[in-house]
Write a structure and sequence with these properties.
The chain is about 30% helix and about 20% strand. The chain has about 300 residues and is of the alpha/beta class. The strands form two sheets. Strands 1, 2, 3, 4, 7, 8, 9, 10 and 11 form a nine-stranded mixed sheet that branches. It has a two-stranded antiparallel ribbon with strand order 5-6. InterPro entries: DUF1177 (IPR009561). It holds the Pfam family DUF1177.
Length: about 300
């Protein structure tokens, strides 16, 4: 919880920058942090890449993507917005993993964490409530947020603007992999129940939710966008609410829910790095591929309307 509160306080500043976050992370322990600024046509953000080495360099490497449009919508809105959860959980996870390492508990595998710092993002219309607008096209964002060395990915995002999960807390999505939706691993459901103390909640997805934003179709949010640029399996870790909350709303960041999401990510990092769990069943994956072929075209924008079949 301490690391979550520290991350919330850090990101709440109107003057926060990617380099300021990087300095805090470097001071916290053994990690490699890179800041990549991107600015164009009046939009700007700073991408953060955080690599925390594990005990075994050959162990599977988990990716944690803190997905969001922006941590703030200044000057229109004052303060940290609901959409900031992805960045909060990503940074808190890094701080907690390094705190554990300082005290002798080094995770088995390297953990790769990506997010971005954008205190002045815009908003966009979306039903049932407005959402934050990504500063750049989604595939360009994903080129910075997804590391090809991630063997599996947990994508963390605020998902309070949906009517499918009508409870406050953290919900898991099915596994997205190369255009397929696969079942949630039983181990993940166990871990979510343990860290939350509640029955695990799941967020249903449609096929279009795992396609690129650029195709213009409706998406529940950008939670699953990392899946469009990687062959690695992706599970969404969605922070939800009983009511629908706009992504640009302030005063709604919930430290308890963010702490559950952080602890879930860290527990999965332990198990995945140990080789004690996988994100999908290899035999079932091979059978799906053999029977139905590739669905990787769903990772693209597809054919334009009216194009020849």
């Amino acid at each position: 919880m301490k690391q979550v509160i520290d991350a919330i306080e850090l990101l709440s500043s109107a003057h926060i920058t990617g380099e300021a976050v990087a300095q805090v992370l470097r001071a916290a322990g053994d990690c490699e942090v890179e800041v990549t600024p991107l600015a164009r046509d009046g939009a700007a953000t700073e991408f953060l890449s955080i690599v925390i080495p594990g005990a075994d360099p050959a162990a599977p490497q988990l990716g944690i993507v803190g997905r969001l449009g922006g941590i703030g919508a200044r000057p229109a809105v004052t303060g940290l917005v609901s959409d900031s959860d992805g960045a909060v959980v990503a940074i808190a996870s890094a701080l907690k993993i390094m705190a554990m390492a300082r005290q002798g508990d080094v995770l088995p595998g390297t953990v790769r964490i990506r997010t971005h710092i954008c205190p002045r993002a815009g908003t966009r219309p979306h039903h049932p409530v407005p959402m934050m607008r990504s500063p750049f096209p989604m595939r360009e964002m994903m080129s910075h947020e997804v590391d090809p060395r991630m063997d599996a990915i947990l994508s963390v995002d605020t998902t309070r603007g949906n009517r499918l999960v009508n409870r406050r807390g953290v919900a898991l999505t099915p596994v997205a992999k190369q255009g397929y939706l696969l079942r949630i691993p039983e181990t993940m459901l166990d871990v979510m129940g343990w860290v939350s103390g509640e029955l695990p909640s799941t967020l249903p997805l449609t096929t279009q939710d795992i396609t690129p934003y650029e195709n213009g179709l409706w998406h529940v949010n950008s939670l699953m966008q990392p899946a469009i640029v990687t062959d690695a399996p992706v599970v969404g870790v969605a922070l939800t609410a009983q009511t629908t909350v706009p992504g640009c709303a302030t005063g709604v960041t919930n430290a308890v829910d963010a702490d559950v999401a952080m602890r879930f990510c860290i527990e999965i990092a332990k198990l995945f790095g140990q080789g004690a769990m996988t994100f999908f069943d290899a035999a079932e994956w091979a059978a799906l591929q053999g029977r139905y072929g590739s669905m990787a075209h769903l990772q693209t924008t597809g054919r334009e309307p009216g194009a020849a079949q």
